[in-house]
Amino acid sequence: MKSQIHLIRHGITEGNQRRLYYGASDIPLADEGVAELKKLVKEAIYPQADEGDFYTTGLKRTEQTLALIYGDREHEVIPELKEMGFGDFEMKSYEDLKEVPEYVGWISDKSGSAASPGGESIAGFSMRIKEGLRILHGKHQLKELSVRHSGGDAVSVMVCHGGTIATIMDVCFPGQREHFFKWIPDPGHGYTLTLEKSEIVRYEAF
Fold first, then answer.
1. CATH superfamily label, 3-16+29-83+121-205
2. Which residues take part in binding substrate (predicted)?
């Protein structure tokens, strides 16, 4: 039995195009994002998941990405794996915020404990993502049990966000990147996690 979890970052949005902080903002894919995903589907970069279990974070950009890649699939929502919430900084760029004292203090914090006004701290975000990963892993283990009795492979597909994926990868493979931001895949790309005896043991980028 093959056991894999596929983590896919949603496609390009206005937030990506304009370099905005937009974790909690429920914005759709940009036209460029739709076109790029269709191109990647034609290039067949995505893992097969015909009998897989599918998940999103419930935000428009993850729902659209799942539908464009795998079609109209029944799926569950794991809200704990949403992107970091930036509070008052949502939908604003560095240029918009660079002279705002609260922003300067926030980006200067090295401890990870400072939160943006109305938003999350890095530490709080990381704790939430770890809980989301625990939930996803648990659901995948149920899939493993199901296919062990019926035959086939255990496959889960999670469409989520760049910061979410980077945090998961940093948790699963500590010390393999100089900074967790290095784990962030391009929009529409991601990682396949392979499990052995229900434990995540290796990965492959796509």
1. Phosphoglycerate mutase-like (3.40.50.1240)
2. 9-16, 61
